[in-house]
Amino acid sequence: MQTAHTLDVLRTRVSSLRKGGETIGLVPTMGALHEGHLTLVRRAREACDHVVASIFVNPTQFGPNEDLDAYPRQLEEDAQMLEREGCALLWAPRVAEMYPDGFVTSISVSGVSEGLCGADRPGHFDGVATVVCKLFNQVAPDMAFFGEKDWQQLAVIRAMARDLDLTLPHVHQIIGVPTVREADGLAMSSRNRYLSEENRAAAATLPREMREAIARIEDGQEIAPTLAALEDALLGAGFSKVDYAVLADASSLKPLEKLEGKAARLLVAARIGGTRLIDNMGVG
Ligand code: PAF
Q1: Last residue of a domain, one of 124, 150, 177
Q2: Would you say residue 182 lies in a domain?
């Protein structure tokens, strides 16, 4: 596997990968890789001739009081994992390469980016949309692979690709890959490593209580009291705050007051010991 730190090197290597008309799958990441990321790489390898993974801790998607400085960085270890998975090229730009002096552009996707995490993390999805658009332009992949754990992020990226008429990857080539979970059900996340042993054990309450709430909703119980009971269960288990627990239309992310026969999703963000965990699951 080769590594590119500059745009010139990236472009040369991408065009040599494409030489015989081969296809490229992009797996954008912020590093600190885990099994969830490696599943994206495997999925990309099945669908495309070559996989390009990017590792870039994108400063513009972190708020002023968030964990940008503390975010885990382990480029060498990550590179070894990607190589073992058969990744062809690692794109690991420095901040000044991605955002040179004078950089002034931002992409803002309204609607899907506004509620849920968008409400708690102002500017976050502008940062995500802008860097993902740049990554798409830099690599011009045929397909791009994202974890469904960040369901709202996936919706924002799809809306951006559709509205900006991106052809590589076209909106239909933006592939969502189901969330990979630990044995106790906790969704894998680079931020799980921030959890103390005690909080890590309590964190498994999140998927468990979500499944319980989904079973009740599918059983016909009212949505609002079921979501209130879910919040109470999380607070009782050691979570300090539930930012949101919402049943939403799976595509528009608009909150639903009842199951209307359309695809629905239960989405939750909750804080435990200073770490913010998110999860989502299909309903109905
Ligand atoms: O999901 C992530 O790791 C990041 O938000 C992404 C898509 C790589 C953009 O920085």
Answers
A1: 177
A2: no
Is 50 annotated as catalytic? no
Q: 185 in a domain, yes or no?
A: no
Contact call for residues 91 and 139 (beta carbons, < 8 A)? yes
* Same domain flag for 78 and 204: no
**Would you say 268 and 239 are in contact if contact means Cβ atoms under 8 Å apart?**
no
Name the residue range of residue 109's domain. 2-177
Are residue 15 and residue 59 in the same domain, yes or no? Answer: yes
- Band of residue 260 on the pLDDT scale cut at 50, 70, 90: confident
Tell me phi and psi for residue 135, to 5 degrees. Answer: -60, -40
Q: Quote the ligand 1 centre to 138 CA distance (angstroms).
A: 15
Is 78 within a domain? yes
Report the C-alpha gap between 146 and 43 in whole angstroms.
10
147/39 same-domain check: yes
pLDDT tens digits for range 68-121: 999 999 999 999 999 999 999 999 999 999 999 999 999 999 999 999 999 999
Query: Active site residue: 37, 50, 124, 170, which one?
Result: 37
Confidence of residue 262 (pLDDT cuts 50, 70, 90): confident
Q: Say if residue 18 is in the same domain as residue 89.
A: yes
Top mutation candidate among 153, 154, 158, 189 for ligand 1, by most atoms within 8 Å of CB: 153
Q: Which two tokens stand for residue 71?
A: 């975010």
Report yes or no on 129 lying in a domain: yes
CA distance 160 to 121: 19
Q: What is the pLDDT of residue 98?
A: 98
In short, whether 28's Cβ falls inside 6 Å of ligand 1 is yes
